[in-house]
Amino acid sequence: MNPNLPAQGAGLGFRRELLVDFAEDVPEGIDFFELAPENWAGMGGRSARDLRAFTERFPFVCHGLSLSLGGIAPLDVALLKRIRSFMAEHGMTLYTEHLSWCADDSHLYDLLPIPLTGDAVRWTAARIRQAQETLGMRIGIENASYYVAPPDAEMSESEFISAVVAEADCLLHLDVNNIYVNSRNFGFDPIAFMDSLPLQRTAYIHVAGHYTEPDGLIIDTHGAGVTDPVWSLLETAYQRIGSDVPTCLERDFNFGDFSALTAEVRQIARLQAAAPQFSREAA
Question: pLDDT tens digit string along 232-254?
Fold first, then answer.
């Protein structure tokens, strides 16, 4: 496997808690890993050696957590420059971020929805273009989960995402679990929503588990197994965009039996193998 090639196939989030499971070898079926560059860029010592041992063998995708693309504070250019150097050092070729805001005077440790307005489209797209210029590459923006609908909307969420992608000339990071969570919490058809997105720009996909509160509210936790409706939505996504989109299983805690995580990664691969292959704009 050439780690300098773009990520392909089925991948898994790279967590320090899982390194003991990788001590002897990485199970067959995991084609790439994803990490949050904020947690690794600039690290030295054992952490840097542990990471290098994997980036020399596997492709990696960078998925940012704190850029706050829709926020009002100045874009963190210093962070972007660190990420650019970090990606170059490890041969990483794809960076994605959430279409949300998460910082004002300081980081809020939550992903908050952006107002669905024309002004917000132009503001956010300009910040994405700045990020792309700093990184020297097009980036993918992820449809985010949310729990309060933005007030005074001038357009639907899918129209907002489509407008931002077009104006920024960026890529789409499709999170099928986020679509499902939002559809259940706000009562819309997840397939119709997905079909209204600029799927031809899809460069990357997330699939994950969630938690249902006693009152029925669904929380995007990344701490449980993927449910059947989310697997079905992923299968539908492949029917729309083809099988060649790298897809990552997100699990942030409750790792449990590592073989269960590996089985879910292999389920991604099975759905990819059964899906059609055709060209996309992002490819």
Answer: 999 999 999 999 999 999 998 77
CA distance 258 to 21: 7
The per-residue pLDDT for range 58-110, each reduced to its tens digit, is 999 999 998 999 999 899 999 999 999 999 999 999 999 999 876 454 444 45
Query: 80 in a domain, yes or no?
Result: yes
Of the candidates 52, 36, 88, 72, which has an alpha carbon nearest to the alpha carbon of residue 222?
Answer: 36
In a domain, residue 234? The reply is: yes
Number of structural domains (the chain) is 1
Q: Count, in order, helices (H) and strands (E) of the chain.
A: 8, 12
Q: Which residues have a Cβ under 8 Å from the Cβ of 143 and sit 6 or more positions away?
A: 99, 157, 161, 172, 173, 174, 175, 178, 179, 197
H helix or E strand, kind and range, residue 4 = none
Q: Within a domain: residue 95?
A: yes
What is the span of the domain harbouring residue 160? 10-274
